[in-house]
Structures are given as C-alpha cells and as structure tokens.
UniProtKB/TrEMBL annotation:
It comes from Daphoenositta chrysoptera. Residues 1-15 have a biased composition (Low complexity). PANTHER family: MELANOCYTE PROTEIN PMEL 17-RELATED, TRANSMEMBRANE GLYCOPROTEIN NMB. Residues 1-22 are annotated as: Disordered. GO terms for cellular component: plasma membrane. It comes from the Eukaryota. GO terms for biological process: cell adhesion. One of its GO terms (molecular function) is integrin binding. This is QNR71 protein.
C-alpha cells in the first residue's frame, strides 16, 4: 500500500505487507546477481533445392521414394524431422526424425517413402541444441514418380 505522510515531507511512505497463509518461512536476500549469456548463431535458414524420385523396379514398387536435397545457413544441424501432411499442410499423415552428422557444409540428402500416390505438403525441420529452422514444399507423388 502507498500512503501520503502527514508530516511536512511530501514524499510517499511505502509499506509492504506480505500474505503467507501456509505459515512457511520467508527468505529475503539482498545483494547482486550475476550471470553470463552466450549468444549462438543457430540455424538461420533451410532450403529444399531439389526433389528427385527414385526409380524402382516393379517388384520394389510398394512405396515411392523421394530424395530431398536440403541446404542451410548458420550452425550445423544435428537432427532432421520430416512431417508429411495433406496438401493444405493442416492434417499430419506421418513424422520421421533422424539424427544426422554434418561435418563441414550444410548440404544433405533426405530420403522419404510415400505409401500411395497423391499431393503432399512436406515440412523439413533441421535442428541443433539451440535452434530449429523449417522449409516447406508441395510435392505430387504419382506411383514412383514425383514432380
């Protein structure tokens, strides 16, 4: 609460009342607190630069395989997640996450299987301990061929 003093000093008097219904201890600390902050670059950008259908023989045609070539800027990722959704990117159909090792340049190929022909929304997320970045694309899979 704040009350105005009745003496000639016009500065307000501040009174602090603390409610402690459980009857526990109060700890008051005075002093300074110090901490350090490390600023990391993180993964700044992800781009899907190529999508290639993998040609399969008739006996292997259970799933259509597509290779996604992905680049990124910033720190090097340690894992990749791919979410396959309906064409509106609203209803998720599957999600696959894998650890990856990128040693020098952020350029990697991600192979994913599609069980049936159709148009899909693909979200590829690259991540590390401190950041994530996402790229999205629409892909049409036509029984072993993609566009």
């Amino acid at each position: 609460t704040t009350e105005t003093s009745s003496d000639s000093d016009s500065s307000p008097t501040v009174e602090s009342v603390e409610d402690n219904p459980d009857g526990g201890c109060h700890i008051y600390r005075n002093g300074y607190y110090g901490s350090s902050i490390a600023v990391v670059e993180g993964i700044l950008e992800v781009n899907i630069i190529q999508m290639t259908s993998i040609q399969m023989t008739a006996s292997q045609a259970e799933n259509s395989l597509v290779d996604f070539v992905v680049t990124c800027q910033g720190s090097l990722p340690t894992d990749v997640c791919t979410v396959v959704s309906d064409p509106t990117c609203q209803v998720s159909k599957s999600m696959v996450c894998d650890p990856i090792v990128v040693t020098d340049e952020c350029l990697l190929t991600i192979r994913r299987a599609f069980e049936e022909p159709g148009t899909y929304c693909i979200n590829i997320t690259l991540g590390d301990d401190t950041s994530q970045a996402l790229a999205s694309a629409l892909i049409s899979v036509n029984g072993g061929e993609s566009t």
